[in-house]
Amino acid sequence: MVDNNPGEEKAWELLASLQPDSVCRAAVATYDAAASSYTLKSFGMDFVVSVKDRAITSAAPGSEVLLKRLSYFFKLSVLWYLVNAKDVTCTGRPVKLEHIKGGDIFTRGSHVLPLDSIANKYGRNKEGFIETGKSLGGEPVKYGDASLQLLPLPRIPISLTLWLEDDEFPARVDIMFDSTCELQLPTDIIWSVAMMSALVML
């Protein structure tokens, strides 16, 4: 059920009005007409989005972190992704969030991502960083001291790069999205995806 979140409620209404075939093609999802539900992957796990019941569920181990602890960010991200997604191939060109349109919000107040917390947790634990990412369906890539590509949503790849602590510099974590993210989601939902992608590592 919708938890009195106007953004979530609006997304459910819009999703119910869309043609399932178009949604599936754009969002890389599948549709069960009998159950009026979509299935899509997030962090390597299958989630069922029931339009009829206005509920998101999963039987995947580890899914409760997203469905419960991070439910606010997760539900908004999934629903608006299904509503907005475009059948556009990723460019493979990473961009920093502050460089997208309206991205200056990521550097202010409560919108600042908890990247320092990730750096503090894994600043001397490269292996732990990689293993946590792998448990979320991520793949190691060659940037920084350690880097992961995660798929919070099928057309929204992100990279998290860890720079280990040393005698001169503190640990640092950078997050980047594919340059197509602006075509797929409004800026506030990109922020929601970024926040959930950071928090799921903690």
Can you give keywords for this protein?
202 residues, alpha+beta, 5-stranded antiparallel β-sheet, 8 helices, 37% helix
Write a structural description.
α2 packs across α4 and α4 packs across α8. Helices cover 37% and strands 23% of the residues. It starts with 5 loop residues before the first helix and ends with a helix. A hairpin with a 4-residue loop joins β1 and β2. With 202 residues, it is of the alpha+beta class. A five-stranded antiparallel sheet has the order 5-9-8-7-6.
Helix content: 25-40%
Which structural class is indicated by helix and strand composition? alpha+beta
Question: What's the quaternary structure here?
Answer: single chain
Q: Largest sheet, if any?
A: 5 strands, antiparallel
- Which segments are poorly predicted (pLDDT under 50) over 5 or more consecutive residues? none
Kindly state the number of beta strands: 9
End-to-end Cα distance, whole Å, is: 27 Å
What average pLDDT do the residues reach? Answer: 95
- What is the 3D form? globular
- State Rg: 17 Å
Distinct helical segment count: 8
How do the strands of the widest beta sheet line up side by side?
Answer: 5-9-8-7-6
Pattern of helices and strands: HHEEEEHHEHHEEEEHH
Task: List the topology elements.
Elements: H1 6-17, H2 20-27, E1 30-32, E2 37-42, E3 45-50, E4 55-57, H3 64-69, H4 71-84, E5 94-96, H5 115-122, H6 126-135, E6 139-141, E7 146-153, E8 156-163, E9 172-178, H7 181-184, H8 187-199
Helix pairs in contact: 1-4, 2-4, 4-8
